[in-house]
Amino acid sequence: MGKKLNIDIWRFIVSFLIVAIHISPFDKISPEFDFFFTRILGRIAVPLFLMITGYYILDKSLNDVKILKDYTKKILKIYFLCILLYLPINIYMRKFASINFIQIVKDILINGTLYHLWYFPALILGIWITYFLIKKMSKKWCFSIISILYLIGLLGDSYYGLTSINNTLSSIYRFIFHIFEYTRNGLFYTPIFIYMGYVIKKYKIKNKCSLISIFILFSCMTMEGMILHHYNLQKHDSMYIFLIPLMYFLFTYLMSHSKKSNKRIRSMATIIYISHPLFIVAIRFVSGMLGIENILVENNLILYLIVCTLTTIFAHFFEKAKGLVANGKH
């Protein structure tokens, strides 16, 4: 790979794939390429975030549960601030006008109060499930249960079309979707990636895969995604079979070619993740007032580039301001 990059730079880079998922930048140029870019390539982003968490947090937490408790409090604090941040947008969109109390509770605890905020409750639930499974069970049973959870999620996600073949499966998934909006959540989706990050750290697993092998695995996942998309089998498109081996070998490769982590870059990636919907809404609002929607909004690629630029600038200055405040306290 040449010069080493730290893992947080990779997290920063893939955060723009998450922005792309919510804008579909190439949709009007080529819907098929946009599907590839956002729903296949883009699906490596969140697993990378989760594996980094498993790598840096879970291994230490197993020796000292206070680390996990403190981390949970930190994520809850961020999530609560995000709920408050996006509350005006939810009110403006009249989200709470037609839903009951139970739905609001489900949104807060499971689905997220806006489309990207599902990650925070899913992260908390996933890391605690993984923690208890590792603590209470053998490696074999732990891996088996986490794999079964992912398989259940898979059949409710990219392979959802297969469940209609069997009446029993259909009934099971109707029940699941009565509780969860998607199987891409803290029960079925996040534990396996957190667990893989932990295993790579715990057993000091080094790079065992060449870039060519990683490319082959990614090509397999691309074919998998395209076939599922072509036959309209997907309820959602976050979970693939080939995503598991791809992320395992990709992560070991990145960690074997990475320097130490960088807290500032890590924070910037998180800020981009949290704030990008705010910029999407703001650009839509301003362009509507100026009558230039056809330039800034209807052109998805332009909108994507502007949102990426503005969120990066915002994250940079936010981190800089935070540093000045911290230095002022000292």
Describe it:
The chain is mainly alpha-helical. Helices cover 72% and strands 0% of the residues. Helix 4 packs antiparallel against helix 6 and helix 6 packs antiparallel against helix 7. It starts with 6 loop residues before the first helix and ends with a helix. The relative contact order is 0.15.
Poorly predicted runs? none
Distance between the termini: 40 Å
Question: Which strand-content bin applies to the residues?
Answer: under 5%
Rounded radius of gyration (Å): 20 Å
Instruction: Tell me, briefly, the overall form.
Output: globular
Mean pLDDT, to the nearest integer, reads 93
Number of helices: 14
Order of helices and strands: HHHHHHHHHHHHHH
Strand element count: 0
Q: What structural category characterises the helix and strand content? A: mainly alpha
Main β-sheet, in a few words? Answer: none
Helix content: over 70%
Write the layout of secondary structure elements.
Elements: H1 7-21, H2 31-40, H3 45-61, H4 65-92, H5 101-111, H6 119-136, H7 139-155, H8 167-179, H9 190-202, H10 211-230, H11 243-256, H12 263-290, H13 293-296, H14 300-329
Helix pairs in contact: 1-3, 1-12, 2-10, 3-4, 3-6, 3-9, 4-6, 6-7, 6-9, 7-9, 9-11, 10-11, 12-14
List the keywords.
330 residues; mainly alpha; 14 helices
Précis, in short:
With 330 residues, the chain is mostly helical. The protein is built from 14 helices and no strands. The model has no long low-confidence stretch (mean pLDDT 93).
